[in-house]
Amino acid sequence: MALKTRIPDLSVNPARFRSARGIWWVILGALALALTFKHLHWLPLPLAYLPRQALALGLMLMALGLRYYAIIRLGQWFSTQAVIQPQHCLIEQGPYRYIRHPAYTGLLGAFIAAGIAMGDGLALLALACPLAWALERRMAYEENLLNGHFGPAYSAYRQRTKKWLPWLY
Questions:
Q1: Alpha-carbon distance 149 to 131, whole Å?
Q2: Three-class SS of 101-113
Q3: Residues 18, 19, 23, CA angle at the centre, nearest 5°?
Q4: Number of Cβ atoms within 10 Å of the Cβ of 47
Q5: 10 Å Cβ neighbour count for 164?
Q6: Predicted confidence (pLDDT) at residue 103 exceeds the cutoff of 60
Q7: Cα(40)–Cα(111) distance, rounded to whole angstroms?
Q8: Model's pTM, two decimal places?
Q9: 79, 98, 138, 150: which could join 166 in a potential S-S bond, CB 3.0 to 4.6 Å?
């Protein structure tokens, strides 16, 4: 899917490619660290196995559902690269009515669910914190692009919505 959504544009700054690639490197590093902490089991989560797995599965399904819905809602404007496309339009429907980056919220939620499933607090933190940091950087870059392209319309949209979670942040 990631290769399929690449946009052939020779004018794209290489930093844009590194932005997506950097997220993948953070994910791989976070997974390796989380699996190590899961094995060491230094900070077990205080929840029995089956309820913890049910919670993780429910959160995973909701998070991936949100991510999928956000990507479908973007339609032709979805890309793994942060670029402004020809005739690019600002999407404000669906999950974008409430949050500006629902696909990233869904991705982070899925990794939080994986950390809960692992059953260790350090594994959970090892997954969530680095990914949240990388996604914040990517969102800042994207918001700068969108603000430059849409100007006052994007500024108004930012005032009406939250970045990660509806009504919170």
A1: 27
A2: CHHHHHHHHHHHH
A3: 105
A4: 14
A5: 18
A6: yes
A7: 19
A8: 0.86
A9: 98
